[in-house]
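Hi R.,

Here's the input for the adenosine monophosphate complex you asked about:
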Amino acid sequence: MPQPAVSPVAKPIIVTDPIAIREQVRAAQARGRRVGFVPTMGALHEGHTSLVDRAACECDDVAVSIFVNPTQFGPSEDFSRYPRSLESDIAAVAERGARWVFAPEAESIYPPGWATRVEVEGPARRFEGEIRPGHFSGVATVVCRLLLAVPADEAYFGAKDWQQTLVIRRMVRDLGVPTGITVCPTVREPDGLAMSSRNAYLTAAERSRACGLFESLRLAEQGWLAGETVAVIERAMAHHLAERGVTVDYAAIVDRDTLDPLTDETSPAVALVAGRLGMTRLIDNILLPLRR
Ligand code: AMP
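And here is the predicted structure with adenosine monophosphate in place:
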């Protein structure tokens, strides 16, 4: 019989029950396998699959969770219209060799009468924490819950959500969660726009202006290397965003580990931007090169 040109991809095991996935992960670890975990809200794009690829490189088995977490959305945010595409997401992670897709129902993550939240302070206070009250508490709560269900050796997150990575690192350290955290680079469209499930909301006109976020970050990098002050660079970033028709929530240069204002302009810094194009809110960041 003729062989197929491409060998068929192994289907991941789809698990909805947190206890069942924990047992399967534990059993794999008992056989000496290193397990990697990529938590997502689905509507997967190359940013997400880059995390799966990294996990597959570094681990024997990879679990990907797909769960649109209601507690990290504010009451007027996009929870109900957030894109959902479970079938194509499963196909995408199958191609990348994931062993499990964990797609729980909300009731198994938040059982009836649930009354426990994980509240992180420190890096959660400013920026997204100010603009989206309760958001990081929702993120920390669900990531903590997911890491209990999927007790992986290593979990993989994107630098695209820089503040989120700091909040998760803090939560994992403070609670002694025995999973390592790896932060992977932001994957971008050819014009620099960071890939995001929310890019699908943009109209064609908004999409063409959305690269203004990345352009403002590049401006920040140039100003930073040229030795300009933080205040001057932040003004230039905000001005550029406004010119591109982005309603600015913030455009800031801060300490990359604490998100506090820089006391010393030679310490490691990150440039953060957030703004709205019509109904769509986008965020982005870049780590700035060290300045002597
Ligand atoms: P989400 O589904 O938006 O919750 O994202 C799931 C994970 O994918 C998070 O760790 C994100 O930071 C990461 N991620 C989202 N977009 C990108 C991107 N463009 N590049 C790298 N990682 C990303």
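One thing worth noting: The longest strand covers residues 247-255.

Cheers,
M.
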